[in-house]
Design a protein that fits this description.
The structure is a single chain. By secondary structure, the chain is an all-alpha fold. It contains 19 helices and no strands. Helix 11 packs parallel to helix 17 and helix 15 runs antiparallel to helix 16.
Length: about 475
């Protein structure tokens, strides 16, 4: 148990550091391009990616997770899965090209034709690296994976900014995406040193295909539920409205998505090894969940409380409408930060079917809410989305943990303490900002109010709510480890 604990913490540390670097690079990319491009240009690309992202759900076919989760798997099986992935990638790249005129007609925007076609190769690049990614995850080589992902993001950032400065406008966003996907796939091949062999019989991978199919269907349903509003906003409100909405959603999601990605892959790999040991699985999940929630909750609320200052500082006054949308989205992202880790538990314990059923319930709830809010524009959609997610949280929690080694009572302290501490810290931070930071620069406001909020949160969570022992134990473990490649 000790070896797995230290390996998990070591992998988590490497992944977290890498995700932090990646988040910083994406933030720099967003800031630079937001100053160079207009909301409508971001909205134009978002029109295409909302649809191509749906196709992207099929590119991996869930086979990366199937490879990681399998108790045992042969090289021939992995090679067969690789060729299946690649075939799917080629098929969807062709389909993406055929879809281009359909998008032009649907949105009434001719620029989408070539934009959609140039996004098509990304399906092939992504599919080519799926099994190489799974190999690194299965071996818990997260330091190596972090280097690959960070290098790809950096080169994509450089490509995008260079294109924008050269006057290519929204094509900079397309170029950045393609370069990132190509470099990621190349880096994964180089890092693993694995070359796929001849494919074996499909009959030998049918159990893996079934697992991957369930995961893909679950991801597909979730994607539709969580992204249909972008398609509807683009169709009925235009590129400017979608540009503001998509920028707001992306900015508030960057830290949360990176943290969930940093811990999620490591947690899934570790929990999958413990699926036959319910006591240890419960221990690992509860502690991992507590750590993630204690970071994501205060960060999300800080972003929501000080959205105007953040947008003024980073993007300038032309993005203030996005700041208002950003603030209304805060409850949605907060709920996501609380429920996303349940995916680790369900997939690691082979409950993909339950994850799919929850997605089949969430999707119509969210879609209905967004349709109700659609007549009121991006703000109406954001508000309706948040209300729906807040109402869904408790049923989702109960449903996900039912029958697993983890109980609702195990998680309630992990949820209540960070929320209480964050609300107290955030309220005091707002008061400090209102009464001492009037007419100050956005940067100074964020530094003073943010530091005060962080200090209050730290005191609350460590001393008032008694979590100091948990973090001291974690810090002791971190001091004892190194991060090998």
């Amino acid at each position: 148990m000790r070896d797995l604990r230290q390996k998990t913490i070591r992998s988590g540390l490497a992944k977290a550091l890498g995700q932090g670097v990646g988040a910083l690079m994406r933030l720099v990319f967003m800031v630079v391009l937001a100053r160079l491009l207009d909301p409508g240009e971001f909205g134009l690309v978002a029109m295409a990616t909302a649809i191509t992202g749906l196709l992207g759900m099929f590119a991996s076919a869930g086979l990366s997770s199937a490879t990681v989760q399998a108790r045992s798997i042969t090289r021939r099986q992995v090679s067969t899965l690789f060729w299946v992935n690649l075939l799917i990638g080629v098929v969807f790249a062709i389909f993406c090209c055929l879809l281009a005129p359909v998008l032009v007609h649907f949105y009434g925007e001719p620029k989408l034709f070539w934009l959609t076609i140039l996004l098509a190769p990304g399906f092939i690049f992504s599919a080519a690296g799926v099994q190489h990614l799974a190999i690194l995850q299965r071996e818990m080589r997260y330091a190596t994976l972090t280097i690959v992902e960070s290098a790809a993001q950096l080169l994509g950032l450089i490509a995008g900014v260079t294109l924008a400065l050269a006057g290519f406008r929204y094509w900079a966003l397309v170029g950045a995406a393609i370069v990132t996907q190509l470099v990621t796939a190349s880096g994964l091949w180089a890092a693993t040193g694995w070359l796929p062999g001849r494919p074996g019989r499909l009959a030998n991978i049918l159990p893996l295909l079934r697992v991957g199919g369930t995961i893909t269907l679950n991801t597909l349903v979730t994607y539709v539920g969580y992204n249909l509003e972008k398609i509807l906003l683009g169709r009925f409100w235009g590129a400017d409205a979608l540009g503001n909405y998509s920028r707001a959603y992306q900015l508030i999601s960057v830290p949360i998505d990176n943290l969930n990605s940093a811990f999620g892959g490591v947690a899934f790999s570790a929990l999958a090894r413990l699926q036959d040991d319910p006591v240890r699985l419960r221990h690992y999940f509860v502690h991992g969940y507590s750590l993630v929630v204690s970071i994501t909750v205060p960060l999300t609320l800080f972003l929501g409380f000080f959205s105007d200052q953040i947008f003024l500082l980073l993007f300038g006054p032309k993005w203030l409408e996005a700041a208002a949308i950003f603030r209304l989205m805060t409850p949605t992202v907060l709920i996501f930060s609380l429920i996303n880790p349940f995916g680790w538990l369900l997939f690691a314990t082979c409950r993909q079917g339950r994850s799919l059923r929850t997605a089949l319930v969430i999707a119509p709830i969210v879609i209905t809410a967004c349709i109700i809010g659609l007549p009121y524009g991006p703000r109406g959609v954001a508000a309706a989305y948040s209300i729906a997610m807040a109402l869904w949280f408790v049923p989702h929690l109960v449903w996900c943990v039912r029958g697993t080694p983890v109980g609702v009572r195990d998680l309630l302290p992990s949820i209540a303490r960070p929320i209480l501490a964050s609300l107290v810290a955030g309220t005091l931070g707002i008061l400090v900002d209102r009464y001492t930071m009037a007419d100050k620069s956005p940067l100074l406001e964020l530094l003073v109010s943010g530091s005060f909020m962080l200090a209050v949160y730290g005191v609350m969570i460590l001393f008032v709510l008694g979590q100091g022992g948990f973090y001291r134990a974690l810090f002791r473990d971190l001091r004892k480890i190194t991060v090998p490649l």
